[in-house]
Amino acid sequence: MTAAIAACGLTKRYRRTQALTDCTLSIPTGRVAGLVGPNGAGKTTLLHLATGLLEPTSGTIEVLGSRPASGPAQLARVGFVAQDTPTYAGLSVADHLRMGERMNPGWDAGLARDRIGRLGLDPAKKAGKLSGGQRAQLALTLAVAKRPRLLLLDEPVASLDPLARREFLQSLMEFTAEQQISVVLSSHLVADLERVCDYLVVLVASRVRLAGEVDPLLAAHHLLTGPRRDPAALPGDWEVITASHTGRQSTLVVRSGGPVRDPAWTASPVSLEDLVLAYMTQAAGAEPGRKPILEVAR
Amino acid sequence: MTWLTWRQFRAQAIVAAAALAVVAAALAVTGPHLAHLFDSNGLASCQARGTCGNDVTAFMDQFKAAGDAVLFWLTAGLVFLAPALIGIFWGAPLIAREIEAGTFRLAWNQSITRLRWLAVKLGLVGLASMAVAALLTLMVTWWASPIDRAIALPAGRNGAPGFNQFAPALFVAHGIVPIGYAAFALALGITAGLVLRRTVPAMAVTLLLFAAVQIAVPLWVRPHLLPPRHAVTVLNPASIDGWTAGANGYMNVTAATDLPGAWLLSNQVLTPAGHTFTGPAPAACVSNSAPVSACSAALGRLGLRQQVAYQPASRFWAFQWLETGIYLALAGALGGCCALLIRRRAP
Question: Domain coordinates of chain A in residue numbers?
Fold first, then answer.
């Protein structure tokens, strides 16, 4: 089965900045993948490389088994909603649907009309007069009505208020459940992704720190509290992601294959937010050539 | 894609069509008057009567008095400015605005390649630009045709000084060159917008570059498009139309030519040995008491010759086609640059 996105050594450098470094990952199809990381981590760069808006400096990327934007057929298979959900301010909602119809052979006019109707958007209204949430919904409608097999969304909810955010994600979920398509969704807020993603990619400072199915990742990580110990004395099969210490107590996020049996530790499951934060903290403390175990006050 | 390009371009097209309609109305109302002046002064038959010089002068005087001259220069100015306006207001924003608003990300993720997106934009707006320029120049050329016919008559140029169809201000505003200018200005604007990624700087750069080209071409390129014709004749004293005589016997003589509608590139009076005549001035020319005719007669006895380099009036259309072709080729080259830029990197 071909991957939704398969990258190998993918690197993008701008004149002075390194936007994406040696990114190797394979996001399977049929998933809703969350791309998380702080601002400037390279999420937009990765998505733009996947849409063919950017060309890699080195490395390769394949989307649904083909080079991004390699032709009309590939463009038809990938839907993209760019950051800030650009639309033509001078064109009405109906004009946008007409544009979609004219420019996409697989256009589903009924789906587009239904979505616009359900959202209560006035077809005669100019896109420039829509609220941020409505514009995002219009952009999403354009992306889904072309019936893509993969939907890429770059911070689609960043500019929305909490209510609009929930509605947007909900309508996205309904759609993906109906259509059986793959989705890659980026956000700098884990809370946005918690309910919708079953695959996670954590990107920090232009590198992929973690990638995998959400449930196995949560099962493999543990939040431990116990008496203070030297990190070197911990079992060898534990990978300590973060460790924070007070005078007497240590709090660790560790990755281990099996359950934690040492009674000195109180183990509790990690939330998605704990997990993402742990990897971001680890990356923030990491320095080249050093083992990334540092004391971090949380 | 054609629909989207048209939808985005619709408002600009309507403005252009309205402006063309206004110009057409003004020209249609005043055009017959100019044709009437041409007929009423008997210019159609002046060659048979041998009175063309005076008839053209009378025609031009009435033309100026009627206020048609104002319209003539206004329309010439309009044809001259239209390509620049097209480059600035149609070309520069065409892609720069999509980049500024981020909408290229929307357009480039529809199921058409960005090369096709560019080709349709360039093609449609390019054709519209050329059509606007063609209509404008057609109307103005039709309107001004009595003047063009008058100055092409023998001695017509003398009757209408300054109205030479090769004169830079008239050459660029008549015939077919405005079509080439419009295509080039549009391509220049689009390229500037794509390179600079900002609408307003792209507009400014388009204006500057287009103005520079429009100054450089008539000065350094157009005279060499075809090798000029040379003519050396014995100086006819009757054709001397001016001289200056200074201290130390220095003298400079200018003589008229009888090349109606031709573009004079150089016009020199030479000594029998073939050097430019700079004196010594004959005594009749420095004396305050001698009549003008005495000086002319004295100059006639020196055996001077007149050497002229010129582009004959018959080459007007050859020049128009050549220059139009050059500008269209430049526009095509710029379009190719845009395609390369858009393929290589996203804004």
Answer: 5-205, 219-285
pTM of the model: 0.88
- Test B346 with A53 for CB contact under 8 angstroms: yes
The alpha carbon of A252 is separated from its chain's Cα centroid by a whole number of angstroms, namely 25
> For residue A153, what are the β-bridge partners?
A81, A185
Q: Which residues of B touch A48 (CB under 8 A)?
A: 346
- Asked if the C-beta of A298 comes within 8 angstroms of chain B's C-beta atoms, the answer is no
Contact B185, B206 (CB under 8 A): yes
Quote the ipTM score: 0.87
Q: Which two tokens stand for residue B89?
A: 């207001």
B101 in A contact zone (CB under 8 Å):
yes
* Residues in A touching B105 (Cβ below 8 Å): 53, 80, 82, 86
C-alpha of B281 from chain center: 39
Q: Which CATH architecture has domain A5-205?
A: 3-Layer(aba) Sandwich (3.40)
The token pair at A162 is 């909490």
Tens-digit pLDDT string for chain A (298 aa): 689 999 999 999 988 889 999 999 999 998 999 999 888 889 999 999 999 999 999 999 999 999 999 899 999 999 999 988 899 999 999 999 999 999 999 999 999 999 899 888 999 999 999 988 899 889 999 999 999 999 999 988 887 788 878 888 888 888 888 878 899 999 887 887 888 899 999 999 899 999 999 999 999 999 988 888 776 777 777 888 888 888 888 888 888 877 777 788 888 889 898 899 898 888 776 544 334 333 343 3
Which residue in B65, B120, B100, B64 sits closest to A84, CA to CA?
Answer: B100
In this complex, the residue of B3, B7, B105 whose CB is nearest that of residue A86 is: B105
A55, A75, A76 ranked by CB distance to B345: nearest: A55
Give the closest-approach CA distance of B76 to chain A in angstroms: 35
Q: Could you give the CA distance from residue B96 to residue A88 in angstroms, rounded to a whole number?
A: 14
